C-alpha cells in the first residue's frame, strides 16, 4: 500500500522550505521513524521521518527545490522488504561495529563533510533524532566548513583571480535569503520611525557588583544586563499596549502578555529566539532562559516553538561595540528595542559635571499603529526603570 510523504507543519509564519538532503534513494528500504530527508527553513532544520516500514518508491521533490507546507515529497510503499543482510541494523548493540552505528545514525550530508574535512564524529554532538549528527552540526564548527559546503552546492560558483587576490561567488543560505526578504518587507510595509533616549547605568552596575556572588550562589547563573532590560521593557509594554500590538489587515491585535524575542547572532546568521511570558518571570528565570536559548542558537539547535510567538524584540548591538543604531522591525511586531554600548560620558548631575556609564537606547516602531507620544513614553518608562531598578520590584 502506497503512503504519501508530505511536508510537515513548519511553524508560525513559515510557509515554505528547501529540500536540503535526501537520506534514502528510490528503491531503498526504510524502517519506521527512520529519517527520509532534511528540510531547511529560515528558522530551523526539520527532519522528515518515515511514518512506516517499507520501501521508498519515488522521490517527487529533488534536493535544492523549494516546497510549501503539505506539499508531496515522496511515495512510500508500506510493507516488510528487509533482506537478511538488512537485518543487521536490528542486532544487539554489542554485535554491531562502531562504523555501522555511525552509518545508521549520522546524516549522509554530515558524513560527507566530516570525511572531506577529516573530522572525528566522536567530537561532534549531534542534534538529530537519537543523537544523529546532522549537516548543520558540522557546518557550525567552522566558518571555513560552511563556506566550503556552500561553494560545493552551488553549480554556478566561480573564482575571479586578479593581482590582489580572488573573488568567491557563494549561493545565499536559506536563512540569509529569508532575512533579506523579511527586512525589505518590513521597510516596504511599515511606516518605520525611530526615537532615542539615554540611560545612566550606574544603579544597575552597582546592583550587579553588590549581588554578583550571592546571585550565582543561589541561582547558578550570572546576573547580566539583559534581564534588567527585559523586565523594564515588559513593564513598559503592559503600560503602553500599542507597542506590544500588531496590525492584521484592518484590525489591531493587542497582546495582554509579553513574549520577548532576543536577537542572537549565530555562525549561520541572525536568529530571534523567544522568551515566553517575561512579564511573569523573575530575573533568574529570564537569565537562565536567555542563556539556554542563546546556546541552542549558537549550536543551531533551536526548535520552531522556541522561535515563534514573539510580541516584541530586543536587539543588543552593544555586544559588538555599536554606540547608536536604528533597529529594523521584526514583522509582524510593531516595535523593536535597541541596546548599545555602555560608555563613560560627562553629564550634569545636580549642577555638577560628572562621568557616568551611559547607554543610548532606541525604539523603532510602526508609525501606522504607534504615535510619537506612545513611543517616547515607552522609552521614558524604560529609562526610569533602569535608572531606578526599585521601580521594577514595586511594579511602578
Structure in words:
With 396 residues, this protein is of the alpha+beta class. The protein folds into 2 domains: 2-148, RNA polymerase II/Efflux pump adaptor protein, barrel-sandwich hybrid domain (OB fold (Dihydrolipoamide Acetyltransferase, E2P)), CATH 2.40.50; 175-393, Chloramphenicol Acetyltransferase (2-Layer Sandwich). The protein has 10 helices and 21 strands. The chain has helices at 98-105, 108-117, 135-139, 143-153, 174-189, 202-219, 226-239, 283-298, 372-387, 390-393; strands at residues 2-6, 16-22, 29-30, 35-40, 45-49, 54-59, 66-68, 72-78, 159-162, 165-168, 192-200, 246-248, 251-253, 260-262, 264-266, 269-271, 274-275, 312-316, 335-339, 343-349, 352-366. Strands 11, 14, 17, 18, 19, 20 and 21 form a 7-stranded mixed beta sheet that branches. It has a 4-stranded antiparallel beta sheet with strand order 1-8-6-3, with no helix packed on it. A 4-stranded antiparallel beta sheet has the order 5-4-2-7, with no helix packed on it. 32% of the residues are buried.
Amino acid at each position: 500500500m502506497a503512503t504519501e510523504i508530505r511536508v510537515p507543519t513548519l511553524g508560525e509564519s513559515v510557509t515554505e522550505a528547501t529540500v536540503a538532503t535526501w537520506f534514502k534513494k528510490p528503491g531503498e528500504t526504510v524502517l519506521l521513524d527512520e529519517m527520509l530527508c532534511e528540510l531547511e527553513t529560515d528558522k530551523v532544520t526539520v527532519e522528515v521521518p518515515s511514518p512506516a516500514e517499507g520501501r521508498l518508491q519515488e522521490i517527487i521533490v529533488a534536493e535544492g527545490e523549494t516546497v510549501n507546507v503539505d506539499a508531496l515529497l515522496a511515495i512510500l510503499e508500506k510493507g516488510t522488504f528487509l533482506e537478511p543482510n538488512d537485518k543487521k541494523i536490528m542486532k544487539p548493540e554489542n554485535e554491531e561495529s562502531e562504523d555501522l552505528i555511525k552509518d545508521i545514525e549520522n546524516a549522509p550530508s554530515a558524513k560527507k563533510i566530516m570525511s572531506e574535512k577529516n573530522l572525528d564524529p566522536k567530537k561532534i554532538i549531534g542534534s538529530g533524532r537519537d543523537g544523529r549528527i546532522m549537516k548543520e552540526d558540522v557546518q557550525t564548527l567552522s566558518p571555513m566548513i560552511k563556506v566550503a559546503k556552500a561553494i560545493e552546492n552551488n553549480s554556478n560558483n566561480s573564482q575571479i583571480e586578479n593581482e590582489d587576490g580572488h573573488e568567491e561567488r557563494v549561493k545565499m543560505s536559506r536563512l540569509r535569503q529569508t532575512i533579506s526578504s523579511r527586512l525589505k518587507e518590513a521597510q516596504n510595509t511599515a511606516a518605520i520611525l525611530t526615537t532615542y533616549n539615554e540611560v545612566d547605568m550606574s544603579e544597575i552596575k552597582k546592583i550587579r557588583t553588590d549581588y554578583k556572588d550571592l546571585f550565582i550562589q543561589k541561582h547558578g547563573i550570572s546576573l547580566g544586563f539583559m534581564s534588567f532590560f527585559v523586565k523594564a521593557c515588559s513593564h513598559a509594554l503592559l503600560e503602553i499596549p500599542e507597542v506590544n500590538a500588531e496590525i492584521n489587515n484592518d484590525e489591531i491585535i493587542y497582546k495582554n502578555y509579553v513574549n520577548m524575542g532576543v536577537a542572537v547572532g549565530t555562525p549561520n546568521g541572525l536568529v530571534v529566539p523567544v522568551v515566553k511570558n517575561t512579564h511573569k518571570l523573575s530575573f533568574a528565570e529570564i537569565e537562565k532562559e536567555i542563556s539556554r536559548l542563546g546556546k541552542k542558537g549558537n549550536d543551531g539547535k533551536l526548535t520552531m516553538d522556541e522561535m515563534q510567538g514573539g510580541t516584541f524584540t530586543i536587539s543588543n548591538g552593544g555586544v559588538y561595540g555599536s554606540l547608536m543604531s536604528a533597529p529594523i522591525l521584526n514583522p509582524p511586531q510593531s516595535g523593536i528595542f535597541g541596546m548599545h554600548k555602555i560608555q563613560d560620558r560627562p553629564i550634569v548631575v545636580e549642577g555638577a559635571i560628572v562621568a557616568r556609564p551611559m547607554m543610548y537606547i532606541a525604539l523603532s516602531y510602526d508609525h501606522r499603529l504607534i504615535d510619537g507620544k506612545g513611543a517616547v513614553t515607552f522609552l521614558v518608562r524604560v529609562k526610569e526603570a533602569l535608572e531606578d531598578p526599585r521601580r521594577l520590584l514595586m511594579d511602578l
